[in-house]
Design brief:
CATH architecture: Beta Barrel
Number of domains: 1
Strand content: over 45%
Structural class: mainly beta
Largest sheet: 8 strands, antiparallel, barrel
Oligomer: single chain
Length: 181
């Protein structure tokens, strides 16, 4: 079995498992009398938007996500991401992915996180570069720590599965800004 097919099947399995987990929460959204519970009161939406350009380079990212706040200390959620990059006369790439994140606040100001991300990377090189076009799946497992100031958390995360040749990130350490309302 090709490695990319294996990663795709693993990703689909993970998405199905997470969906079933989410649906079980929604099924519990009503009590025995049929009265709606407060499930949606615990769901927070957020994500990130990124834009970078200069000297023939452009990059844009959109990454919506949602978390379920179990209590003041623990939350878990899902995210989607899409990125488009281009470097004039060098390459164009598109990256789409899905992630699952777990957040723990041992104290209100400190947020610990674990995030598994599965990305499909498609790079199309300019024919003059001599590089072959690429299309592959890349997994990342981030462990992070951040300063929480209400809906915004600033921090840094480390990819424990980092592969310099395949990662879309230049380093295993990645700063982040996380926003949930």
């Amino acid at each position: 079995m090709k490695k990319s097919t294996y990663h795709f099947k693993k990703t689909v399995f993970l998405i199905v498992l997470i969906s079933l987990f989410s649906f079980s929460f929604m099924a519990q959204n009503t009590n025995s009398n049929g009265v709606s519970s407060d499930f949606w009161d615990h769901v927070r939406f957020g994500g990130g938007i990124g834009l970078s350009f200069g000297n023939g380079f452009f990059s844009g990212t959109l990454a919506p996500s949602a978390i379920y706040q179990f209590n003041e200390q623990v939350a878990m959620g899902l995210g989607l991401s899409g990125t488009y990059n281009t470097q004039k006369d060098l390459y164009k790439s598109s990256i789409i992915g899905v992630s699952i994140v777990g957040l723990v606040n041992p104290i209100r100001e400190i947020q610990l996180s674990a995030e598994f991300e599965e990305l499909n990377v498609s790079r199309n090189w300019d024919s003059r570069t001599g590089f072959a076009n690429e299309n592959y799946w890349y997994p990342a497992l981030f462990l992070g720590v951040g300063y929480n100031s209400g809906p915004v958390t600033f921090g840094v995360r480390f990819d424990v599965l980092y592969d310099r040749n395949k990662s879309i990130y230049s380093e295993s350490w990645v700063p982040f800004v996380r926003v949930y309302f």
